[in-house]
Amino acid sequence: MKIISTEIVLALILSGTIGAIAGYLGSLMLSKRMALMGGALGHLTLPGVALALLYDFDVSLGATLFLAFGVLIIWLLEQKTQLHLEALTAVVFSASLATAFLFLPKEDIDIALLGDVSQISSTTVLVTVIISMVLFFTVKKIYSSMVLASISSDLAQTSGVNLKLNNALYLICIAVTVALGVRIVGGLMTAALLAIPACTAKNISSNLSQYTIISTIAGSLACIMGVIAYAISGIPAGPLIIIASALLFLISVFKQQKD
Amino acid sequence: MANKHSVLTVNNLQIAYDDHKIISDLSFTVQQRDILIFLGPNGAGKTTLLRALQNLLPYQGSVSWNAQKISYLPPQEFLQRQNLPPLNIGEFYSFKTKDLDSIKTMIVDVGLDESLLRHQFSELSTGQFQRMLIGWALLDSPEVLILDEPTSGIDIGGEETIYSLLHKFWQNQNLTILLVTHDLNIVWEYATQVICLNKQQVCMGKPDEVLTPEQLKLLYGTGIKFYKHQHK
Known about the structure:
The structure holds two protein chains of two kinds.
Chain A: H1 6-26, H2 37-44, H3 46-55, H4 59-80, H5 85-103, H6 109-114, H7 122-151, H8 153-158, H9 163-185, H10 190-204, H11 208-233, H12 237-258
Chain B: E1 6-17, E2 20-31, E3 35-39, H1 46-53, E4 60-65, E5 70-73, H2 89-94, H3 100-109, H4 126-138, E6 144-148, H5 156-172, E7 176-180, H6 184-190, E8 193-198, E9 200-205, H7 207-210, H8 213-220
Parallel strand pairs in B: 3-7, 3-8, 5-6, 6-7
Antiparallel strand pairs in B: 1-2, 1-4, 8-9
Helix pairs in contact in B: 4-5
């Protein structure tokens, strides 16, 4: 039976790990400015994913290359114009989405947009787990500084926080997490991978440590549920993961009302 | 050479946004255990000055600190209290120290109940929030405390409580305080030094000596009613 194959076990480990780190990092992004950033970055990865599918190399690698390229263009445009970072991101991500469709093979559109957890090698799983652990320790290191900075950047800086370094690390973590997430949920739904677990956690937690733990678990659990549903139904895992995440969110809403 | 008791020496400070000068040619010295109050109308550059003193803004001139630990509280309205992760007060305090006993002692010292450590930012009243912030700022025993309008949005009774709280800490610890306020009564009651600012230094010295009706008129324009707090 498909559900107990090695392929599914590898998919479960991979998705569960990416879900956990996305949930953990996403718990820091629950502010007005950052909530949609994950989505914009997800779109930015698409030409890279398209190239990876076309020339048969790793989609996360393609995604990372185009994220770096996109972020560089946004940064250059910001220097040249008076426009906000968000506005420029919108311009660049739409353009990059459109570009992706120019050379994305038709038969691979589903994979690029909705993700694919089939045919994952054990090397990919190992590399993903190692990258996720590095991400976890980096996010843990900057977590309290970033929370302090979201209260007031002056307060953070006068408390000895190197805001430029922390912001750079934060953005790199987001970009790498998006590049990992693209593999399992595709370029269209990475924002959900980052945002929904944090919303779920916020509904049912009364302090910061509960909140981060619940967000991490909710992120991982949704991915595991999605992959199991994929193994049973054969429907692409990406949408199933996001639906599972939305279901967990709904449960948290009712739990919150009961409390 | 800087006096050995001075904690801050500022020389020819100039701050500008683009070509617009906010502060020009400001020089002063702050001694240990001073309570220095910056007085001036809105837009005089008081907040800008406090931020420049802490290297949060570019400036010209020299700012030289002779203190290791400096705590700063921005105006309350500049702090985000909503749309935050569910951070409770105990966790906020633990960003500064992991010592639970000193956290508990501090929250009681600022006149709040220990149970508030489990509450979130949005659950505190404006007055409670400001006391909590003062406790946070003092948690690692700073030598200098810089406050920007610490009682904005707080009623008169609450304002008096905040200042007597600050005064209590000032008496008990080796603390130097730099403070921005609009309230002349606070200047009369607590300041050891006052600097009147309106883009440039209008007056500087002990409140009794420099805050004359003429100076206040110069500082705020016409229409200021002169009222001096009577000390025994």
